[in-house]
Design the sequence.
């Protein structure tokens, strides 16, 4: 780290602490040449995550948009908001762990469905009906039968 006063590259860290929100590290540094002290902040740089929509459009990943979709699917269900926030966090973490900069909306939807299924089956069907765009009663029934078939195998 260069000294902001004399531009010398030789500085040492005298103190390190996490910030109040825990998202950065505050470092007190001292220049070895001029002896002046200054503060730097170190934080994780998150690469923007791009979602590729079904129609080919690209947009930034928005965890609030995903959470709102889950909240709509769980309307009037006994599902705690924290459970839904945990699902969104887990899905986002799994996507970021792949180190891909782009992810399809289909992949996100499948990941959410995988998590939502164990939380509430009615919410799962509601989310699936919007995500998979059921065109008719047959496609809706096919999803229900699939859900019931895998439930019987357990």
Sequence:
């Amino acid at each position: 780290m260069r000294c902001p006063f004399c531009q010398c590259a030789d500085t040492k860290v005298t103190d390190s602490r996490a910030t109040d929100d825990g998202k950065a590290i505050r470092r007190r540094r001292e220049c070895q040449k001029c002896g002046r002290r200054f503060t730097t902040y170190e934080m994780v740089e998150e690469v923007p995550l791009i979602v590729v929509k079904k129609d080919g459009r690209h947009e930034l990943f928005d965890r609030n948009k995903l959470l709102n979709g889950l909240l709509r699917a769980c309307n009037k269900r006994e599902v705690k908001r924290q459970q839904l926030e945990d699902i969104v966090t887990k899905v986002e973490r799994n996507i970021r762990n792949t180190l891909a900069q782009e992810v399809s909306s289909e992949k996100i939807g499948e990941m959410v469905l995988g998590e939502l299924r164990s939380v509430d089956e009615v919410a799962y069907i509601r989310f699936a009906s919007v995500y998979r765009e059921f065109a008719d009663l047959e496609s809706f029934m096919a999803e229900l039968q699939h859900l019931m078939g895998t439930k019987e195998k357990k």
In short: The first strand starts at residue 11 and ends at 18. The chain is about 45% helix and 20% strand. Strands lie at 11-18, 24-31, 37-43, 50-52, 58-60, 102-104.
